[in-house]
Structure formats: C-alpha cells, structure tokens
Design a protein that fits this description.
CATH superfamily of the domain at 55-144: RlpA-like domain
Structural class: alpha/beta
Keywords: Cell wall biogenesis/degradation, Lipoprotein, Lyase
Domain RlpA-like protein double-psi beta-barrel: 57-140
Strand content: 25-35%
Family: Belongs to the RlpA family.
Radius of gyration: 25 Å
CATH topology of the domain at 55-144: Barwin-like endoglucanases
Distance between the termini: 63 Å
CATH class of the domain at 55-144: Mainly Beta
Order of helices and strands: HEEEEEHE
Protein name: Endolytic peptidoglycan transglycosylase RlpA
Pfam family, one: DPBB_1
Length: 145
C-alpha cells in the first residue's frame, strides 16, 4: 500500500514507505550494474577474430601533444611509440601502415580519428617513420597483420 504524501511548508516530507522503496530500487540497480561488470571482457580479448590480411586505405593524420594522457585502452600515450587510433578495430590489432614507399607496423591502442574522411590517427613517431609529419595528413594503406 502506498500512502499519500502530505507536504507541510517548511518541513521535509517524511514517509517511511517511500524511503524504503527508493533504497530497494537503488540496491537492485547496483546489483544489475555489478553483474554486468563481471561479464565485461578485457580490451585485449575484444573482437579477436579480425583476420590477418584485411586492408583498408584513406587519409591519415597524426597526434602527439597529448603525451602522458591515457588512451581509450587505458595505456599512457607515448608520442614516440609506434601506435595508432582507429574507430572500430580492436585494441592490440597490429597494422602495417604504408605511405608512399615507407611502411611502419603500429598497434591500435586508442579511438579516433574524429574528423570526417580520416581512417587513422598515427602517433607522432609512427607518422615520422612513414614521412607524414611535414604535411600532417596523407594517403595511407593499412593492412592487418
């Protein structure tokens, strides 16, 4: 039975049944969240079925001013490391990225790029290795290793 709540100006509404109901709903919500958290997998295990040899191409850019901040995978960003950001590939995916005649193997550890028309964001070190730093943006071919 739900009792009607009468509010008296200047005094808080006191209703034991309402308080108990709110506590019960809160406990149920926390329990559901905890059980879902136990089912989550590590990013290293996510979508591990991406096959070797799959390739894509498009515009890539680079980033490096965020050194030390955490990436989407939880790793600290190192602008000199051979890493990349991709919107959907699983973290840990290794890509052979080619720009012109130069190639580098990078590991996906972040999400992005968030600019329309771009397929990869390379770390500054990876961009330097393929000669992308002078222009900032360039056409690349990426092959899953």
């Amino acid at each position: 039975m739900i009792a009607a709540i009468k509010r008296v100006p200047g005094r808080p509404a006191a209703n034991r049944n309402t308080s108990i109901a709110l506590v019960a709903v809160g406990i149920l919500a926390l329990g559901a969240t905890a059980s879902e958290a136990g089912q989550r997998k590590s990013w290293r295990d996510a979508n591990a079925s991406v096959g070797s040899g799959r390739s894509f191409s498009g515009k890539a850019s680079f980033y490096g001013n965020e050194s030390g901040s955490k990436t989407a995978s939880g790793q600290r960003f190192n602008q000199e490391a051979m890493t990349a950001a991709h919107r959907t590939l699983p973290f840990g995916t290794r890509l052979k990225v080619t720009h012109g005649s130069r190639s580098v193997v990078v590991t996906v550890n972040d999400r992005g790029p968030f600019i329309k028309g771009r397929v990869l964001d390379l770390s500054k070190g990876a961009a330097r290795a393929v000669g992308l730093t002078s222009r900032g943006v360039g056409h690349v071919v990426a092959e899953v290793q």
